[in-house]
Amino acid sequence: MEIARYPRPPRDTGVGFHWFPDEQHYGKSVLDAFLPELIAMGTSWLVLPSTLDRPIPEYSIKSLLGANIEPVIKINTTYDCCLDQQHLRRLCETYGHWGVHYIFIFDQPNLMREWKQWNALDLPDCFMDYLLPCLETMFAINDVVPVLTPLAPEGNYHDLEFLRRCLDVVNSKGKDYLYDKLAIGIHNYAANKPLTWGKGGQADWPCAQPYRCPPGCENHCGFYMFEWYDEIVRERAGHSLPFICAGNGVLVGCREHDYYPSIDETLHARRSLEMGQMLMRSQVPAYIFNNAFWVLSAEDRSDFAKHRWYTPDGKPALPQSIAMLKGMPKQTRRPATTAPKSLRVLITDNKIVTMDMEEYSKGVVRQEMGPGKRLEALKAQAIAARSYAAAAVRRPRHGDAAVCTTTHCQVWSPRRYEDTNRAVDETTGAVVTYDGDIVSTYYFGHCDGQTRNSEDVWRRALPYCRSVPCICGYKTMYGHGIGMCQRGAMAMAEQGATCEEIIKYYYTGVTIVGNVAPPLPNKLQT
To answer: Do 452 and 481 form a contact (C-beta atoms < 8 A)?
Structure first.
């Protein structure tokens, strides 16, 4: 199932919380007290602890769904390979009948404290012996999405290796059909580090080693943990899967990294606001479905009382953070398949200017491919240039500016030509997507008859940048060799290929979203 088809709540903001840390707070009065607060903060997701013995009350589930809040059920139980699957099925069918989609069982199995007997040698295999039947049971229930159990960051058994091994077990046992309807649970706490800590994944931070992060290096233990997990998921499953957060945010008093200040209430509020905005503005990949700020409330005697946003009677415990989220302008997450109308561009005199996306694209096509080419080749260049820029808006390459106007990003000029303008006009808004996300459509001058896999040049394996044969006719490589060969695109257009055929040839497994004018009869093309 494509990521875009996985269920999301109406008017999804991506903002979410973890409810109380226990399964005891589902009385009508408790929910009625907190529901208006959740709505005021723009909440769309709520993680709810449950047990195997009995479901959360139907009233609670239906009230949340009625408020457009997606419940994520966390089933707490001890590790027992003799779990009654019929009992689990009945419980999950009940939840599914009420409208629940996402369910996970257990939590943080890579921690020693979660096990009566700890055997690190084959721990992931032992755990998957227990979990796999549960995933299969949940998979078989219509509308229920099984969630792979979230792991503790690092943990006593390193989480990255634990995740690799769990997915290896799925594959080795022939259960890879589960990838057709599976989500990945995650605990991506930001600690006291910048929210961008670890951004880029292992490909950008090869210096990071298990339990060791040398000075000047960044590891996966931060908000951007999902990029590190996604690398592993794509290696094992062949494509990205949705990530369902079970707990994250920042915790008052945390100073995990000595270089950065500890989290006080003011910094907690600012970081929480930033995280909420990143989700709402689709500034994270489409496979990230939610935040789950830890923790909405907890009893005074609880070990987690110091982390709570509210006291059990509904009084603010973190008033600055609550006020920030309540005052935050709410917006539904835009589909990641829509190109922004404008972007901020760093021009050559170091000024940042805001440009209309289509006008910017005309200046790029004019410079990057130039006039006098077949219209379908120019249209392919226009789609690639627009997609590259749109992806950079979500992940800016120059601070406050999405792109620059040099070969570092895309070369741009205010000058125009009629046919390059036409190529942009006939593809207005069209972008390239992979797994429901606009992708960075790299391109280059010409190749030696074969484009390159991205990891062969830049370390990072991009699933849509696979090596393909090319008819460009050159014996040498000019450029990085990743993505679309511009000379090859021109040659394909000469042979009658459409811009869509060119794009889908050079970018593996992608979809073009948006309207593209049909090609002219061959005799009328430039």
So the answer is: yes
Amino acid identity of residue 378, one-letter, is L
User: Following DSSP, what letter does each residue of 144-213 receive, concatenated?
Assistant: -EEEEPP--SSTTTTHHHHHHHHHHHHHHTT-GGGGGG-EEEEEEE-TTS-TTTTTTHHHH-TT-BTTB-
Predicted TM-score of the model (pTM): 0.79
Question: Residue 50 is encoded by which pair of tokens?
Answer: 């449950």
Of 418, 514, 454, 400, the C-alpha closest to 234 is 454
Q: What is the dihedral of CA 49, 54, 59, 62, to 10 degrees?
A: 70
Identify the H or E element spanning 216.
Answer: none
The residue assigned the tokens 């899967």 is 241
Name the DSSP class of 304: T
Report the interhelical angle of 123-139 vs 159-172 (nearest 10°): 60
H or E segment and range at residue 382: helix 375-394
pLDDT at 335: 67
199-203, 300-304, 475-479: least confident range = 199-203
Ranges of H-type helices in 52-103: 58-66, 85-98
Give kind and range of the element (H or E) at residue 127: helix 123-139
**Strand-strand pairing, 342-346 and 352-356:** antiparallel
Q: Which helix (H) or strand (E) element contains residue 385?
A: helix 375-394
Distances (CA, A) of 483 to 161, 220, 406, 502, 504: 30, 28, 19, 11, 10
Q: Give the model's confidence band at 177: pLDDT under 50 very low, under 70 low, under 90 confident, else very high.
A: very high
The contacts of residue 419 (CB under 8 Å, 6+ apart) are 371, 372, 373, 375, 378, 526
Beta strands in 368-430 (DSSP E): 403-404
Q: Which of 161, 155, 168 is nearest to 128 (CA)?
A: 168
Mean pLDDT for the chain?
Answer: 93
Classify residue 520 by its DSSP letter. P
Beta bridge pairs of residue 484: 443
Q: Number of helices (H) and strands (E) in the chain: give both, helices first.
A: 15, 15
Q: What is the pLDDT of residues 255-285, one digit of tens each?
A: 999 999 999 999 999 999 999 999 998 888 8
